[in-house]
């Protein structure tokens, strides 16, 4: 949800004094004080780039710009004129050069900080404000001082301004800021932090566009009266109560809902937002580059929500419970042992000729497997070698059955369901398939491990 702020407003001037009774050069000390105030104002928010603007023929502010550039930790540009909506502009000029103020090029910057050196005019503030009333700048601060005064008589004035405007009304607000005076030791202590004020639209009506999408936004008709329900409606009501404004809901014509967003010729609620037919819109939409670009949003808050829909416990099948105590590699080893044992039962050793003959015997692979599972042997071998093989095979199967039954009992005692999935690690270890909407796949494009498990 975005509130479209269309202009700036006027606030009271907050005046404070800083005693500069130091054994330093008066001009340098003044620039240090002003530079410190500018840096603290810029640090109150995160700006993409800070632009410094001054008259090309006036080099008096070069030292001040250099002082600020050394202290400010962030990207800066000088006379670039490449202004973006998240930028801040520090404009510096003398009171005799008001005609230089090219504010029409600033448009929707995040902050305009005007530094004025009052040379001959004392009522400079009103002239600056009259030049700024028609702009669309979100936030404004003015720092003024007189460099011709003595160090112990210098007064630095700072004013902050803002105005909130809707399609139906406009309200001015006064913000009061507090500052710390200079310490007795002579060090300059300036607190220029400006708390975000309580915005009050004073009961002004706002046109809110909605896209009907249950259960987020639901529209029902009760006895000829249209009622709006849903979590997004409740969110809008909470905003209206907090900022003291009334709501007038507007739906897109012809049932277009959100519609299609284009640079020109958008439809639905997208067209209403672009054409300024609503103050703001609320609705559940997927984030995309074209929407974020063409809607000219301010500071957005985007988040993705991942919902796991997994049963609390999946019961094992009877076959899974039987196989569970032994790993796959162990089962392969057991089958190989059965094959070898069945072959040994087929060997006949000729004691006179000392050679081995393979004869067809009554004991087969099935008989060996049956003995492994604890069954009785109907055809007992007569040859001594085969009896030795039988005794060894019975000992092996006895050990295997004992271990198998112990492990199986432990598994059945601990539970007959799979391990519950309680974390992301459990989800990845489970090997289950992911099911997601087509629009959700864009968030996992850089995660091939997840997309391989998508079905």
Automatic annotation (TrEMBL):
Query: Which residues does the UniProt record annotate as the domain Ionotropic glutamate receptor L-glutamate and glycine-binding?
Result: 215-275
Alphabetized, the UniProt keywords read: Cell membrane, Glycoprotein, Ion channel, Ion transport, Ligand-gated ion channel, Membrane, Receptor, Transmembrane, Transmembrane helix, Transport
GO molecular function, a single term? ligand-gated monoatomic ion channel activity
Q: Which GO terms describe its cellular component?
A: plasma membrane
Compartment annotation: Cell membrane
Q: Is this entry keyworded Protein transport? A: no
The membrane topology noted for this protein in its Swiss-Prot or TrEMBL record is: Multi-pass membrane protein
Matching entries from SMART domains are given as: Lig_chan-Glu_bd (SM00918)
Q: Does the keyword Methyltransferase apply?
A: no
* InterPro entries xref list: Glu/Gly-bd, Insect_Ionotropic_Sensory_Rcpt
User: What name goes with this protein?
Assistant: Ionotropic glutamate receptor L-glutamate and glycine-binding domain-containing protein
Q: Which organism is it from?
A: Aedes aegypti (Yellowfever mosquito)
- What gene is this protein translated from? 110679197
